[in-house]
Amino acid sequence: MSGTLNATAASGGKSVSALETTEKISHSDLVLGVFNGGVQNTTVKALVAAGMPSNLVFTDHLDQSIKASLDKAGLPNVIAQANDISDTVKTRALQADNSKQAASISEQNAAQSAAQSLNAANQAIDKVNKASITVSGVVDAQKDAANGIAALSADKHLMLSGVSVMGISPDGHLLLSIDLPTQDPHVAGVLWNNGQYVMISAG
After folding, report:
1. Which domain of life is it from (predicted)?
2. How far apart are CA 44 and CA 31, in angstroms?
3. Which sign, positive or negative, has the C-alpha torsion 181, 184, 189, 195?
4. Helix 75-142 vs helix 59-72: crossing angle, to nearest 10
5. Domain range spanning residue 14?
6. How far is it, in rounded angstroms, from Cα 165 to Cα 174?
7. 111 shares its domain with 157
């Protein structure tokens, strides 16, 4: 109790200083004291409020103010949007992972397909080579054979028994290109070249 204590008796017959002290008080209880220069009654609530700093902030008020500010700023919507974005990112990441796996499978399939194609190409080349060898053997076997085939020289002339045919004379004889000996072979009837003329050996 504020103010000056004295021994004046209260209405109950006790002095103010002799009254009991209680711990149970309400904000609406009256307090007797000297306020604003005079003996007056005031409430506990007013007394407590007067003793508080002007910049004091109560926790409940602070929580309410923060919540109001966040609601006003649309924070719940921002949080919801952030959650949506997070879900979208997770979905995109899952799709990317699935795409990566699909690409890996496609790459493996492509590699297998390429290997199979290469193997098939090698087999085809092998078959062609074997066929070429077979055809070459058949052709070689037919060269200079009866009812067979005749070869061509490097200058595209027909070859008969190793002799190049130059053409056919007007009277139907074959014109042949042959190498003649440059000395008399001493074999009757054999042609030879003395450097200027074609000679017939007398034997």
Report:
1. Bacteria
2. 7
3. positive
4. 50
5. 1-56
6. 7
7. no
The amino acid at residue 197 is Y
**9 and 35 inside one domain:** yes
Q: Give the C-alpha separation, 120 to 114, whole Å.
A: 10
User: If you count DSSP H runs as helices and E runs as strands, how many of each does the chain have, helices first?
Assistant: 3, 8
In terms of domains, do 142 and 63 share one? Answer: yes
Mean pLDDT of 181-194: 89
Task: Please report the sign of the dihedral spanned by the C-alpha atoms of residue 192, residue 195, residue 198, residue 202.
Answer: negative
Whether residue 80 contacts residue 68, with contact meaning beta carbons closer than 8 Å, is answered with no
pLDDT of residue 12: 59
Output the average pLDDT for the chain. Answer: 76
Q: Are residues 27 and 88 in the same domain?
A: no
Rg from Cα positions in the chain: 64
Q: Token pair for residue 18?
A: 């002799």
pLDDT at 198 over 80: yes
Looking up tokens 């700093």, which residue turns up?
A: 53
